[in-house]
């Protein structure tokens, strides 16, 4: 009987075609509840086979926590409603609220600043605060009310900004 289960599992694993709808890590985890060794092995082989086929077809990919964090940092300041579904873990609020980054360049003057950061992000001042371009080296950007953002250059006065790139 054990051989039949193993053979059936291998046939299923080799013959199964995977689509994004029927592939899940839950299938692999479900195998832990199978008590018979041969059945459990067949379950794992089938589930992993479906995942491998889906990965080879481009329907499934793995993403590291570091990659997710990089996407969150790169997209900071942009409204991307689907981004929370990519975050890892089960926490209710894993959104990035604040970043401090080195400044590459500041253009403009007195209420019309455009700040380019070392990571390539470009932010534009949206309020009329009279700020001077004094060769600032660090930008602290944080969420403000109603989805807006504020920035402080070198710990100075906070002013409203929007991300343009």
Strand content: 15-25%
Question: What percent of residues adopt helix (DSSP H or I)?
Answer: 25-40%
User: Could you spell the SSE succession in H and E letters?
Assistant: HHHHEEEEEE
> Could you tell me the radius of gyration in angstroms?
25 Å
The parts where pLDDT drops under 50 for at least 5 residues are: 1-20
**Overall 3D geometry?**
rod-shaped
How many helices? The count is 4
How many separate structural domains? 3
Q: Tally of extended strands?
A: 6
Strand order of the largest sheet: 1-2-3-6-5-4
Largest beta-sheet details: 6 strands, antiparallel, barrel
* Classification by helices and strands: alpha+beta
Distance between the termini: 63 Å
The overall pLDDT, averaged over residues, is 76
Can you offer a commentary on this structure?
The chain folds into three domains: about 1-55, no CATH class; about 65-95, no CATH class; about 100-165. The chain is an alpha+beta fold and about 160 residues long. The chain has a six-stranded antiparallel beta barrel. About 30% of the residues lie in helices and about 20% in strands. A hairpin with a 4-residue loop joins strand 2 and strand 3 (about 120-125). About 15% of the residues are buried. Helix 1 (about 1-15) runs parallel beside helix 3. It contains four helices and six strands; from the N terminus they run ααααββββββ. The chain has helices at about 1-15, 25-30, 35-55, 65-75; strands spanning about 100-105, 115, 120-125, 140-145, 150-155, 160-165.
């Amino acid at each position: 009987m054990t051989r039949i289960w193993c053979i059936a599992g291998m046939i299923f694993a080799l013959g199964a075609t995977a689509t994004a709808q029927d592939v899940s890590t839950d299938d692999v985890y479900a195998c832990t509840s199978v008590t018979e060794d041969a059945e459990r092995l067949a379950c794992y082989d089938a589930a992993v086979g479906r995942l491998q086929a889906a990965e080879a077809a481009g329907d499934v990919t793995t993403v590291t926590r570091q990659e997710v964090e990089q996407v969150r940092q790169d997209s900071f300041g942009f409204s991307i409603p689907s981004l929370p579904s990519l975050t890892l873990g089960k926490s209710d609020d894993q959104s990035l609220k604040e970043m401090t980054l080195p400044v590459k360049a500041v253009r403009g003057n007195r209420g019309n600043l455009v700040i380019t950061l070392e990571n390539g992000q470009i932010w534009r001042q949206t309020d009329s605060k009279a700020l001077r371009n004094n060769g600032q080296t660090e930008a602290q950007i944080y969420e403000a009310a109603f989805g807006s953002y504020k920035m402080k250059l070198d710990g100075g006065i906070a002013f409203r900004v929007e991300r343009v790139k």
